[in-house]
Structures are given as structure tokens and as C-alpha cells.
Amino acid sequence: MDRLPGDEVAIDLGELAPLLGVSADALARAAAQLVGVGALVCEPGRLVMPRRAVLEAQSCGCHVAAEDVVRWSAPAPD
What is the C-alpha separation between 50 and 62, in angstroms, rounded? Predict the structure, then answer.
């Protein structure tokens, strides 16, 4: 989501699971927790992240580490 222009992406959880290398059941459980705290909205064919700060607070610190890797490996802007 950090590399997208908005707060939503056109994808189903079932399509996202193999991209993340996790089972659909595990992703559905994690998504349900995020929906429960208001960090994620799951709709058919669309995921929305209305409260980024809440989502980041739910992470285990992995987001900061991943953000650093993405920032380090991403091409420099024009």
C-alpha cells in the first residue's frame, strides 16, 4: 500500500494470499483482525486502508523494516 497513490487496491484476499506466500485462511484471519480495529475494509475485489496509523500500530515492527528495504531498493525519483 505504501507504493500506491491512494488508500485502496483492486484485489481480493484470495488473489493476495499467494502473492504474500501465505494461505488464504491465514490471510483471512489476519484481515478479520484488521477489520475489527478499523484498519482495513475488505470488499469484493477491493481492499481499503482507511486508517493507516491504526494498521501500522497493529504491525510487529515489520512495516518499519520493510519500509526501509523498499526505500533502499526503490529507484530514485526523476
Answer: 20
